[in-house]
UniProtKB/TrEMBL annotation:
This is Superoxide dismutase, Ni. It comes from the Bacteria. It comes from Candidatus Doudnabacteria bacterium RIFCSPLOWO2_02_FULL_48_13. GO terms for molecular function: nickel cation binding; superoxide dismutase activity. Pfam families: Sod_Ni. InterPro entries: NiSOD_sf (IPR036502), Superoxide_dismutase_Ni-type (IPR014123).
Amino acid sequence: MKLIETVYAHCDIPCGIYSDHPSQIAADTVVKMNEKIAELGEPPHHSEKEKFLAYHNSLTRMILVKEQHAELCKREILILWTDYFKPAHLEKYPDLHEQIWKACKLASKNKQEINMQTAKELQEAVHEIGHIFSETKK
């Protein structure tokens, strides 16, 4: 008896539709959430309970969105890496593997901390991958 193996793909139908836009929007969102967190301004500890709760509610939501988009960014980069880029692309862009690895590591780091420099590094790394992606589409 032959076993049936379950396989997974970008979508249920091999559509051939790939885009760098989701990863770029996700990286931009990580930067934006870092900006918003920096602008939030913690209320004094002896402030009204409503202000204190509002601050923590906003902070929690911004951190959650930052982490969700860092994960989405990583996922979208990996989709391009595993499903779109081919050996011919690596021949033309020999550091592509390193760039993908760096971007995914930066996405993980952005989940771990609130750091504008790291967020901007992610944004730039994703932009570079997007440039390569665009070049391969020509």
